[in-house]
Design brief:
The structure is a homodimer. Chain A folds into 3 domains: about 90 residues, Arc Repressor Mutant, subunit A (Orthogonal Bundle), CATH 1.10.10; about 240 residues, Type I PLP-dependent aspartate aminotransferase-like (Major domain) (Aspartate Aminotransferase, domain 2), CATH 3.40.640; about 110 residues, Aspartate Aminotransferase, domain 1 (Alpha-Beta Complex). Chain A has a 7-stranded mixed β-sheet, sandwiched between helices. A 4-stranded antiparallel β-sheet of chain A has the order 10-11-13-12, with helices on one face. The radius of gyration of chain A is 29 Å and the shape is globular. The first copy, chain A, has 16 helices and 13 strands. In chain A, helix 7 crosses helix 13 and helix 8 packs across helix 9. With about 475 residues, chain A is of the alpha/beta class. The interface between A and B is large, with 116 and 115 residues. Chains A, B: In the C-terminal section; belongs to the class-I pyridoxal-phosphate-dependent aminotransferase family. Chains A, B: This is PLP-dependent aminotransferase family protein.
Chain lengths: ~475, ~475
């Protein structure tokens, strides 16, 4: 890492290569080099003891003669700034004559890297990402990039990736769209910002599901929108409870987050009817529907709507890797001019670096094979977790789920009324487990209580060990 | 691209691999496969004529026997959905019995790729990016990523990159900071959003330079801030003209954008004095100071301030590639807790993909060598442009600039009063040249007029040809 000798070595090189010598200046090149080198050495005590570049190398880099560099090195040796070691080269002295303290800042040790803790939900297993394939696609895209990749980046995203996503949605979600309706984003927050700034008036009221993704209300607030939570029933969000002033509703119809329920067709049609009648837009967050283990998933709501009033949001953070930060939205044709105008005004934010690699990864079919493989692995992990949690019967209520990446475990008779899901979550956190409380996903009072147990991101050994610890903890609290 | 046969081939595979068969269901696997396959084929007319996977491959993928797949294929052949060609395999029929139109969307041809046009400013030459080196760093970082890379990404950025940036700033900008003060962003807009949401009250008034980056006011507005433009004089932004309600000032002290002036020490001290007195923050946008061709650049304002009240913004979009979308800000220690709390609340947005590659590219010294090489190339291109524009003497006023990536050409006596910089810009756009008008960078009335001629991004042939066309155009308009 950065505190190694190697890094400071190249950093001194970098500092010296940054020197500017002006042949037209009144001062000689030699005097300029002497002054510049002395100042660079004094600029940081991190350089103490570091080797200088060979005089030949520095001379070539600065376009001066080697003799000039040697004279300057000799001068600084005589001043005590530099020392020579027989056969090893020239080094900055360990003790400098007048070490300037101005530019030296003590470095704190880096904060420890945050590890994923067992039962973290919405996390694909980072170890199962096909890294070698992915690195090959990155290398191929960028080693000798096409002229199109070097042209002005389209703020809506790299076209072949948008086309590959359109193909994927047709194959996996029965959603037909033109690639030009697909807009690449840095994830759900970026998508919400684009939607609430480009398409809707400021301080729009938005109906959201309660419970929902805990950052939702804060994210909407940071976009200037106002969240209006609606407690969902067994059939999902009831459009009759959307306030008249609302101009948008955010829903997770395929699998409600985090309870996992899917919205029946009747509720879907009612929601589309609300949108048509009120002129509102429905935002469908379809975050992990590809991980379906049994039965046919209901097609995307946006497909039912034929992309008239529904914006569809997808993400690769759950399908592939949380590190990518690539998501997308599919936009009704009539809204595209406003989106384009917004990007013209403020520009795009999403890095182009991963986009061509992801496009060829999808075009090659490797992405579909990966999803299918993960579906098998995650289905096994869900079954394993269910069996590993068997000792907690009576404490929590667990049932197989037809899809998803976590289980939502209600509190059983041995816990109900004695302890809250939040207290269990806090106790589990002390034991190193990331068990989220369902009531922390509610902003309305008297939210339902349950524990969220993410299983997709962890192998069976880890899940087994974590389940044993959680069972013991629940038995103690019951 | 996506419309090739190859892509649809793998897309049909992908669609079939997405099928879910449930051994526990009432329907037989064979009936489920027959129904699923029929629906997939009908879902898009893009599949017409496409070859199906071999029965052996599909059987293995779906965990059914090969006989089951063969029976289903035979059934669909008899129904007219599939056809066989001797020795070539099984294909979707060209004409389908009852083609469902629901999911078929005609695809528009992609919009043409936008090429960079000569004289675009703030653009590094995409052809000179060391692509092979860059791809090697990407491949090395991701082929077999370290456990730290697979851990929970730090929303403030990949630590070794933050450390490499701290090293770079010490070497090139005489700015000393701890790596933990460096926050990785998706560029200037992202940085402004973080600053105005995390550190300042909503609807903060911000003093900005006039002229300035044209998207500045819109970007600030989209963050909820209110821009108060101050017309700059020869000494830059005068703190006496900052309104009392302002809590922030955004400046480009090293090289004012786009006039190229640098702010003298007296103005810098006055600005720091304003910040100390008013409790305001100064945001230093140091966008291209590394490209300095003569003389020593003034150190960063943030260094003079010792990072007390100044936030420093840097970017790799101008140093390396516009496609990266990686920038950074250096934050005073006392403001770090608020930044961390903001990221806790809403999460980070910047892709991790390029970060470890950029870190090792910087640590290896290749980045410093690249900057030095670009400095030589861009200095030559500036000199070349000056000579190529010699025929326009009297029409425009051009002088060598000690740094930067564009020249700011005032209107000469043969044009002044006859034609505005905006009219020239519009005429140049019709001729395929991207000559920006200085007055388009002003939001206050009676802005100064000049033409911005970016030279860094274009080779001498392109610059020479573009300069000839511009000279002819100016002569016609004069």
């Amino acid at each position: 890492m950065a505190n190694s000798g190697k890094s400071y070595q190249s950093n001194l090189d970098s500092a010296l290569f940054a020197l500017l010598l002006d042949p037209a200046a009144a001062e000689s090149l030699q005097a300029q080099l002497l002054d510049g080198l002395r100042r660079k050495i004094l600029s940081s005590n991190a350089f103490c003891g570091v080797r200088l570049p060979a005089s030949r190398v520095l001379a070539a880099e600065l376009s001066v003669s080697r003799t000039t560099v040697q004279i300057v090195y000799d001068q600084l040796i005589s001043e005590g700034y530099l020392v020579t070691r027989q056969g090893a080269g020239t080094f900055v002295a360990q003790e400098l004559p007048h070490l300037s303290r101005v530019a030296s800042v003590p470095r704190h040790p880096p904060a420890p890297v945050a590890r994923w803790r067992p039962f973290q939900s919405a996390l694909p297993d980072p170890a199962l990402m096909p890294h070698a394939q992915w690195a090959r696609h990155l290398d191929r895209a960028w080693r000798a990039p096409s002229a199109d990749l070097l042209a002005r980046p389209d703020p809506l995203g790299w076209y072949p990736l948008r086309a590959a996503i359109a193909d994927h949605l047709l194959a996996w979600r029965q959603l037909a769209c033109d690639p030009q309706q697909v807009v690449i984003t840095s994830g759900a927050r970026d998508a919400f910002e684009i939607i609430f700034r480009a398409l809707l008036p400021p301080t729009t009221t938005v109906a959201i599901e309660d419970p929902c993704w805990p950052k939702m209300a804060r994210t909407l607030m940071s976009c200037g929108a106002r969240a209006h939570p609606v407690r969902i029933g067994p059939e999902g969000l009831d459009p009759a409870q959307i306030p008249a002033r609302a101009r948008a509703a955010i829903v997770t119809p395929s699998r409600h987050y985090p309870t996992g329920r899917s919205m029946p067709l009747s509720s879907r049609l009612a929601l589309l009817e609300w949108a048509g009648r009120s002129g509102g837009v429905v935002i469908e967050d379809d975050y992990d529907s590809e991980f379906r283990y049994r039965g046919q998933p209901l097609p995307a709501l946006a497909g039912l709507d034929r992309l008239e009033n529904v914006l569809y949001l997808g993400s690769f953070s759950k399908l592939l890797s949380a590190a990518l930060r690539i998501g997308y939205m599919v936009v009704p044709q009539r809204m595209l001019p406003q989106i384009a105008a917004y990007f013209d005004a403020v520009g795009g934010q999403t890095s182009l670096t991963p986009q061509p690699a992801l496009a060829s990864f999808m075009e090659s079919g490797e992405f579909a094979l990966h999803l299918r493989r993960m579906r098998r692995v995650y289905a096994r992990r869900q079954a394993y977790l269910l069996s590993a949690m068997a000792p907690a019967q009576g404490f929590v209520e667990l049932a197989p789920d037809a899809g998803g990446m976590h289980l939502c475990a209600g509190l059983g008779p041995k816990l109900q009324g004695r302890v809250s899901d939040r207290e269990i979550s806090a106790e589990a956190a002390r034991a190193g487990l990331c068990v989220a409380a369902l009531s922390d996903h509610c902003s309305l009072p008297h939210g339902p209580e349950a524990l969220l147990l993410g299983y997709a991101g962890f192998d069976e050994d880890t899940l087994g060990d974590a389940a044993r610890r959680l069972c013991a903890l629940l038995a103690r609290m019951g």
